[in-house]
Amino acid sequence: MAEQGAHNAALLQAQGICKYFGGLKAVENVDMTIRQGDIFGIIGPNGAGKTTFFNICTGNCAPTKGHIFFCGEDITGLSPESVAQKRIARTFQNLQIFRFMTVLENVKIGCHIKTRSNMADAIFHTRTFRQDETYTTEKSLEILRRIGLYDCKDTLAGNLAYGMQRKVEIARALALDPKILLLDEPAAGMNPLETNSLMAFIKALNADGYTIAVIEHDMKFVMNACNRILVLNFGQKILEGTPAEVKANPEVQSAYFGKGMAAGEAIK
Predict the structure, then answer these.
(1) Per the CB 3.0–4.6 Å rule, which of 136, 208, 224, 240 could disulfide with 111?
(2) Residue 15 to residue 79: CA distance in whole angstroms
(3) In 10 A of CB 265, how many CB atoms?
(4) What's the whole-model pTM score?
(5) What pLDDT sits at residue 93?
(6) Contact at 8 Å (CB) between 175 and 132?
(7) Residues with Cβ < 8 Å from 45, sequence gap 6 or more?
(8) CB environment 83-107: b (16+ within 10 A), e (fewer)
(9) Orientation of helix 162-174 relative to helix 192-207, angle to 10°
């Protein structure tokens, strides 16, 4: 298979990541490897350190110890903007869209890292500004077409159903033209229908060539969408493996399912 080598290339790696807040070890010596083409899940109970770990990967938080590598380059401690310029895009746990702007305008904002206009260009509508406007509009419309949101491009984002708003947020992240897309609990607050729609959406993005990492509480979602999973508990790594390996691991079952619930119940 021609793509096998590319598919096996390590894209985002964490080595010995620790994050301490005073005496609290939020993340303790976590290693991770996300390969090109993965849908990679990060799971664990509340307080397991998932979002802190994600924040370290995206520059929102500096590690106490350890290193983050992206495409082989050490990006530890870079600012979130510098990380975004490396084409690492993320969404946040709390929905962050501009409710009173249209879907198209929301996605155009995601293109800002690739534009060259400054305030003066905007005020005087210079050639640079006009070129940037053309680029951001065309790029955004192309993304909306590709992911099936084109028909609501002129709708105010706040008027869409919650599941659709989540997709708009992901579309804006795609405007960065990311090599990897990190989604922090994208299914939070969704009903089962919206969750299934989001799962299909993420699988379609992956089939389109995007590598995706997702923090998610919904075990069924992770087991059915992800090809590899990292399990954290109390800031420590229990396991990194396939859904089948995760499901079969007794430590994961006691940490995550508790009270003797069979892990099999999490699978469709």
Answers:
(1) 136
(2) 19
(3) 9
(4) 0.89
(5) 86
(6) no
(7) 233, 255, 256
(8) bbebebbbbbeebebeeebbbbbbb
(9) 20
